[in-house]
Design brief:
CATH architecture: Up-down Bundle
Helix content: over 70%
Shape: globular
Structural class: mainly alpha
Number of strands: 0
Oligomer: single chain
CATH topology: Growth Hormone, Chain: A
Distance between the termini: 34 Å
Length: 503
């Protein structure tokens, strides 16, 4: 199969037209906007859908178990990116992966919008998991393919791309949350399905004319010699899953909880398998291997950060619903008669990102040669993430049994958002820069596996959240994160040597 050079790909598309960036960036931003609109809209009400009583339109599950399900769902979303990255690298390329993924996601949201039982809900989640696994890592990889390897515009491009993600994430919880509160859950889910439909149409209409050759190549195609090995490995994996379900079923231990434990073990092992594969591969050069080693501490730091950030849809969502004063009338002496939908707090993170992303993008450019290197940005992110939990300790220790003023929760979201702006665009960019040439999409999948591991950690942390007082939880998690930030700062000089000129 013929492969195009980086120069051929870059020169095959319109180079300007969107704030000095290739037009293809706007196509990918629009597609990602609608995909994230559907994802975050659904996720904003998923937890409530699981634990609200049946007479309120929910399933009436135990609150802790519901939070575990949402965490495992989030983990599977990003774990499936490994499959999506592998398929793109070895078989179909990123362009087709994005298209097929959008179709599967739309089907999942349509199933959600229908009156359903718990089995149909799990099937809908499966479609969304598989579709997101195809779309999410590969659309980010496609952004990187629009530029030369060391183009200084790459960081700014990923900042704009992340802003489009958060525009979708900002709008959808407001609309979906209002519909859930005032009309019903399924109307909210229907809006998410419509959003994904728009994303699919945008990509189909604009990709050919704006993306050129990007995403069409298969970077590491399966050779005839590899096909037998690939089929064998795939068969073993499928057989292992079937054996697991058969054995646990016969033992009477097949349950959603046992499956979550199985996923946890698998998810923890996957990133390290990929690191080892890239390091020992003959297709990876000496410099590329050194860069993979340098990437490992960044991966662990991102796991720590995403663990706190992703608790916005579990621990903080539950806290907003159960422990936060949502009645504006009480806060304003009845001057304003309004109850805040709990799902609206899910819009705070993207609201702050949309507001602050241009400022951060300007700041990194303005700093010039004083722009902090990647490792320092990661350390700053962990410090801010730690503070986002530590600020919750004071009001919780002084409020007694009273519901907490929502201002403290807003401050917490603000701090973790500032952390995200230091880490997320930088992480996406450094992943494309440190990726071995033969593992571009799979390296991006590893980046998203950090989120997988984080949410697997969260599936256990929610049990700790239920076992201790709220102030203890936020204090202890905050202090641990602060300690990791200091360690990363101390090892940064050693990591710089392994990055081989990438900063």
């Amino acid at each position: 199969m013929a492969q195009h050079t980086r120069d051929e790909v870059v020169n095959s598309m319109p180079r300007t037209g969107f704030f000095g960036h290739p037009k293809g960036l706007f196509t990918l931003m629009l597609t990602e906007f609608w995909e994230r609109f559907s994802y975050y809209g659904m996720k904003a009400i998923l937890l409530f859908y699981l634990y609200y009583s049946v007479n309120k339109g929910g399933f009436g599950l135990d609150e802790g178990f519901a939070m575990q399900i949402v965490s495992i769902y989030g983990a599977l979303i990003y774990m499936s990116g490994v499959i999506g990255g592998w398929l793109a690298d070895r078989f179909i390329g990123t362009r087709k992966a994005i298209l097929y993924g959008a179709i599967l996601i739309m089907i999942g949201h349509i199933l959600f919008s229908l009156p359903n039982n718990f089995t149909l809900l799990l099937i809908a989640l499966l479609f969304i998991i598989l579709g997101t696994g195809l779309l999410k890592p590969n659309i980010s990889t496609n952004v990187g393919e629009l530029y030369e390897k060391n183009d200084p515009k790459v960081d700014a491009a990923f900042t704009l791309f992340v802003m489009s993600i958060n525009m979708g994430a900002l709008i959808s919880p407001l609309l979906v949350g209002w519909l859930q509160d005032n009309v019903g859950f399924h109307y909210g889910f229907a809006v998410a399905a419509i959003g994904m439909f728009f994303g699919l149409i945008v990509f189909m209409l604009r990709s050919k004319q704006t993306l050129g050759l990007s995403g069409l190549d298969v970077p590491n195609p399966v050779t005839e010699a590899d096909k037998k090995k690939t089929i064998t490995i795939t068969g073993i994996v499928i057989a292992a899953f079937l054996l697991y379900f058969l054995v646990t079923g016969l033992m009477g231990k097949l349950s959603l909880e046992s499956f979550m434990n199985f996923v946890t073990v698998l998810g923890m092992a996957l990133p390290f398998y990929y690191f080892i594969t890239m390091i020992v591969s003959k297709k990876t050069t000496k410099d590329e291997k050194a860069r993979v080693f340098a990437y490992v501490p960044l991966f662990l730091a991102s796991v720590t950060f995403w663990s706190i950030q992703e608790q916005g849809s579990t621990v903080l969502a539950h806290f907003a619903d159960k422990n936060t004063q949502l009645n504006i009338g009480i806060l304003t002496n009845n001057a304003i008669d309004f109850k805040i939908p709990a799902a609206w707090f899910q819009s705070l993170n993207p609201l702050f990102i949309v507001t602050l992303a241009p400022i951060f993008a300007w700041l990194w450019v303005k700093l010039g040669r004083f722009n902090p290197p990647t490792v320092i940005k990661f350390s700053i992110a962990l410090f801010l993430a730690a503070m986002s939990y530590l600020v919750m300790v004071y009001p919780l220790t002084h409020n007694g049994d009273q519901l907490m003023n929502p201002g403290w929760l807003i401050l917490s979201y603000l701090l973790v958002t500032m952390a995200e702006l230091c880490l997320s665009p930088t992480g996406l960019s450094v992943t494309t820069k440190l990726a071995p040439q033969a593992y571009t999409s799979q390296m991006m999948s590893v980046w998203f596996l950090a989120n997988t591991v984080a949410q697997l950690v969260n599936s256990k942390l929610v049990l700790y959240y239920e076992a201790v007082e709220n102030h203890q939880y936020f204090n202890n998690i905050g202090l641990v994160t602060l300690g990791i930030a200091v360690v990363l700062l101390l090892v940064s000089p050693f990591m710089k040597k392994f990055m081989r000129g990438i900063h």
